[in-house]
Amino acid sequence: MDKRMKIFSVFHSFDGECNYCGQGHLTTFVRFAGCNSKCTFCDTKKAIPLDSGKETTIDELVAQVEQFGKGKLTITGGEPLLQIEELTKFLSHPMISYRDITVETNGTIPIPNEIYQKAKSWIVDCKPPSSGVQSDPTIFEFLGPADYIKFVIFDEEDYKFAVDIVKKYDHLTWAIWAFSPAVKYLRNIYNPYFPTGRGFFDSEFSILKILTNLLTNPPSERIVLNLQLHKLISGFKEEE
Ligand code: SF4
């Protein structure tokens, strides 16, 4: 019998997460329901409970994804690895397995080799102090040059944490370090009451200052800036 999984949303957009195919690449997002973390800054809190997702068979999910063509896929959540058996079957489906696939995971669950091979690129979170969640840095050693370790930067302490982790693990992994300003900073670019993009450019914690710092004094040569384009484009809808 076709396995059922809990899917929160399926949508088409520009990929706002760094990945091997390139940020800004057209992609179909599959957002799995259910997460084992409760990050304070989560931008998709509605997807945290497993029952937030619609029960979907693999064939139904393939059909939903096919509506948007046969291009790249971005698997995200929630935490997709919580439904690892269903995820593995979906990624192995003949209409899916040939595609460019990238998977985002929260860095709290080891990635078994069998499923690691099924995606072109993995984007693994390293949770900073403000998240209230701890990632497992031993996962990073296993990652390759097509993979990314992502820090969401919410405040200055998060930035210092990220820099320390990069310095500590840079020689142990091939993965690229992605610095991602928290969604609240992106929101302020849009906010008509803050026409200068306050919060992004000139708040007491200036994300621009942090980014300039990264540029002039990078803790590694493998650093990238991650801006969640799909969040900007959707107007920060939780489904997308
Ligand atoms: S891991 Fe991701 S989906 Fe889960 S609570 Fe944190 S930010 Fe939200």
Summarize it.
The protein has helices spanning 58-66, 84-92, 113-116, 156-169, 183-190, 207-216, 229-234, and strands at 4-14, 26-32, 54-57, 72-76, 101-105, 121-125, 148-153, 176-181, 223-225. It has 240 residues and is an alpha/beta fold.
Plain-language structure description:
Helix content is 25%, strand content 22%. With 240 residues, it is α/β, with parallel strands linked by helices. It has a nine-stranded mixed sheet. The longest helix is centred in the last third of the chain and has 14 residues, at 156-169. The two termini are 30 Å apart. The model has no long low-confidence stretch (mean pLDDT 88). Residues 35, 37-39, 42, 44, 48, 77-79, 106 line the site of iron/sulfur cluster.
Show the helix and strand layout.
Layout: E1 4-14, E2 26-32, E3 54-57, H1 58-66, E4 72-76, H2 84-92, E5 101-105, H3 113-116, E6 121-125, E7 148-153, H4 156-169, E8 176-181, H5 183-190, H6 207-216, E9 223-225, H7 229-234
The protein binds iron/sulfur cluster.
The site of iron/sulfur cluster (SF4) has 11 residues, from loops.
